[in-house]
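for the record, two folds in this file. i put them one after another cuz i was lazy. first one right below, seq on top, structure tokens after. the second one comes after a little note so u can tell where it starts
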Amino acid sequence: KIYEDNGVWKSEKYAGFNGTGSTTGHRLKDAQFIEPFGLAATSDGDIYVVNRDGKFINKISGDQVELVAGKPGHGGQVNSSTEPLDARFNVPQDIAADSEDNFYIAGGWDGVVRKLSIE
């Protein structure tokens, strides 16, 4: 987290720092990421993180990190119309959110852009 405090820019831990993996839970005490590469913030302040080599997407909401799409360590080109956790990504590169909080994920090795709606 980078912010300005009385004209001085500061940086502090925001999430992770607990090793490399796919652990969810408290963003500072428990969370682990596998090469976080891109992120997007929604209108309600949640942050979605693409884990490039882990092939999954996390959500940071308040102090909690949860898995919302993909399966850690299991890549591929699987779309899922019912369960985001059944989707498979092949080294996803980036993520963006639109005004309706739909997500667009730029693929890496699979060379596609996918739309993800989490309801």
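(here's the note) second protein begins now
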Amino acid sequence: KESVNNVVKHAKATAVKVRVRLESNRFILEIEDDGRGVAEADKAKGRNGLRNMSKRMEDVGGEFLLGPGAERGTLIRLTVPIRPPAA
């Protein structure tokens, strides 16, 4: 939710793609826009929303990636481990 909010609020994007992938040991959510991208200064500021997403992933043993999109814009990837059910 926070990532899509950032696209609307900051990216000046015309399109956003949301991809969900389920693998045997992890769940991956990617949000990619075609906007202006994230400036290094914005990364350094560490806005609360970005910091909170990163912290939440850390809390569950997952990964948070913030980087450039395939063509331009921004890609956020959240990777969450899936643990097998307890016996």
